[in-house]
Amino acid sequence: MSSAPSRSKPDPLARALDTAATQVLADVVRLSAANPVILIDGRSGAGKSSLARRLVALWPGRGRVQSVAMDSIYPGWDGLDAGVEAAFASILHPHARGLVGVWQRWDWERSEHAEAHAIDPSLPLIVEGAGILTEKTARLADVSVWLDAPAAARRRRALDRDGEAYRPHWERWAHQESVHIDRDDPRARATHVFEVP
Known about the structure:
Layout: H1 12-31, E1 37-42, H2 48-57, E2 66-69, H3 80-96, E3 101-107, E4 112-119, E5 125-128, H4 135-138, E6 143-148, H5 151-162, H6 170-184, H7 186-189, E7 192-195
Parallel strand pairs: 1-5, 1-6, 2-5, 6-7
Antiparallel strand pairs: 3-4
């Protein structure tokens, strides 16, 4: 008899993220806004990108939605705070004022800014990444999410995703996340808190 897990048994992480997506999208429907803003925060490996992908795929009415990963904005391994400030100034604040926002992708291999991307203020917006939920950004969000997961599971997922390039920087990045959590209390600012395995 095979010791492999049954294909019919749902993955606990997928199930938790599906539940989160359902609840967040129920809020989006209740808002009845043309261009809601959703912020997804959590430590590395908590499932932020996976939740954002689910939200985009299941967006009500199959309308167009913009999704920005903070991993594309942080300016390097010491750039959590700088990335969040850049997202506020170039994405969230313009969107809230009805203006086109423009952000630049960070090229991790070259350690420099790369091409620019525009954000349409008339469209819904999802921004996901560690550090994104602060006092300043929370005021511009219609729905905000904090994802929590056990440290061992997060580390395994993050290193599986990013490979050996991330391993030497894990503690360095985790320290910045801890500073953010202590200073900004993102869990308390979230409209939804989801525990994922």
